[in-house]
Amino acid sequence: MSTQLSHAVGLSANSSPVKSVSTDGVKASERLEFWRTHVGPVFGCLEVELPSDQIFSASFEYTTIADLTFCRLSSDVPHRVVRTPIFARRDDRAFVKLVLLTKGTSLLGQNGRTTPLRSGEWSIYDTSKPYSMTIPRRADMFLLLVPRDKFPDRSFHLPDLVARSFSGRRGLGKLIWSLIPATFDQIPEMGNRSTHDVADIVAQMARAALVDFSDERALADPRVDSKEALRERVKQYIAGHLGDADLSITKLAGVIGCTKRYLHMVFQPEKTSLSDYILKMRLERCRGDLLNPACTHRSITDIAYSWGFNSSNHFSRCFKRAFGVCPRRLRAEFAAWPAAVVEPRQRPS
Q1: How many CA atoms lie within 13 A of 269 on its CB side?
Q2: Is the pLDDT of residue 240 over 50?
Q3: CATH of the domain at 47
Q4: Are residues 122 and 200 in the same domain?
Q5: pTM of full prediction above 0.70
């Protein structure tokens, strides 16, 4: 078998060279096996299905920087690539693969969903799960493999996003569309010290684009009740954790399992920000304790700290702004009220 594999460009000692693989010059009867052999180490084991009257023809270039793999691939004939369940189980590597279609069309299938991709669109799939890609005619594309652990579930729910088409012409999708090809082209010019930083930037941008798309899908969801239910979940969690001084939007997003941006959007009907809502609830709990005869033995600072405040001065300022009176004066006025006003007599039984 003729091996048309060449090192196209050399990088620094700790970087992978850009490698080229092409079926040109390989005997027609050996091309599919040749392709599987050289694609496997990069993408994992794949089955390639070809119409009976076609001779396979394709080429790709690839390289790695840090833990990312970049690839530019061209295919001249119709074919279908399949990641079978057996292949997926045998491979212990887990990647999220981004595919940017620059020419032609393709059909991507995973997780029970099949999505057509056209030139100018991109999508993702999980290489640890079965998938298929059908290419009906000539197609060119860029591919990026990112370790699965760089996309934590708290950022978005990956199964909801695989095999969906994203636009490469607007928003963060457009930035990704420009960034991945430009990075691939400039890798030979990068110094070794820069590659890890560049890899982190690319992975962060990919994650940000997917988070953004996840938020758009959630906001476009016609099931309004789901947003109301989520808002109630947030309120319930806040009510049960007001004493946690670390309670914040960041922590809420992690607990609930969505982004901070989406939390803000879900909370918009309340006509107040999440931060202000948490502050308001804490102040009301403090006011209740200051007016509670059972809490007269507790200091104002103790009450404030028990409801999540970590500065007595900050608490006093916020309290006066909310209720028009400082905590100490409210407690003093409460102590002077007649018992009958504070706690009405019960009727005799």
Answers
A1: 10
A2: yes
A3: 2.60.120.10
A4: yes
A5: no
